[in-house]
Design brief:
mainly alpha; 7 helices; 2 strands
Length: 208
């Protein structure tokens, strides 16, 4: 089974998993900004594995692409659904609102990923509904704005933001272009810049 990781795209996905574990470790140890910063690397690596898979499709052995599709799908579940739900609960400190928001997100995310597994992209390379891959970048944006908000309001803002996003994951009335081609390095630049900014605001004594 390990032999599947000799494929370039699957190797990148494996690195994304390692970054995801680091993100979860940091978040569960009270370093939420650092955890999201690490998960942003999982996010952009998730785009690179698909990019590399398309560029090297003529080199991939039989069965490797099928393995990679499932391998990548589980990574989407972690960084796009499970991790944001965990952050909602951690930030909300176990309130009923955080439970509701995280429950809606997990259910909507699971439905959306299952739907995509069977339907895939549209003919013009668009997602139906907003992909769960947008959840971690949203977390990053919310956390970067956290110093500007009262501590008492921020957990509610996070919960409501994802309660709004959850139904947009499963709607069929929105189409979102897939991040491909030149959009991949642009997403990478955003992820690196945002992760650096999150590291900065996590430092003691930081002032916005």
């Amino acid at each position: 089974m390990i032999g599947y990781l000799r494929d370039y795209a699957n190797a990148i996905t494996a690195l994304a998993y390692l970054s995801a574990v680091i993100g979860l470790f940091l978040a569960f140890n009270g370093k939420i900004e650092l955890g999201v910063a690490a998960m942003l690397w999982t996010w952009f690596l998730d785009h690179w594995d698909g990019h590399v898979a398309r560029k090297t499709s003529h080199l991939r052995r039989p069965g490797v692409a099928e393995f990679g599709k499932s391998f990548d799908g589980f990574a989407d579940l972690i960084h796009g659904v499970v991790f944001p739900a965990a952050i909602i609960i951690l930030v909300g400190q176990g309130t009923a609102l955080s439970l509701l928001a995280s429950s809606l997100l997990v259910l909507a995310g699971a439905i959306r990923l299952s739907y995509f597994e069977n339907v895939g992209l549209t003919d013009d390379a668009c997602f139906i509904g907003i992909p769960v891959s947008y959840d971690t970048p949203l977390l990053a944006v919310l956390l970067l704005g956290r110093p500007l908000l009262p501590d008492s309001i921020f957990p509610t803002v996070v919960a409501i933001a994802f309660m709004i996003l959850a139904p947009l994951h499963v709607t069929t009335s929105i189409r979102v272009p897939a991040i491909r081609g030149t959009a991949v390095p642009i997403a990478t630049g955003f992820a690196i810049a945002a992760s650096i900014a999150l590291v900065m605001i996590s430092q003691p004594g930081f002032q916005p």
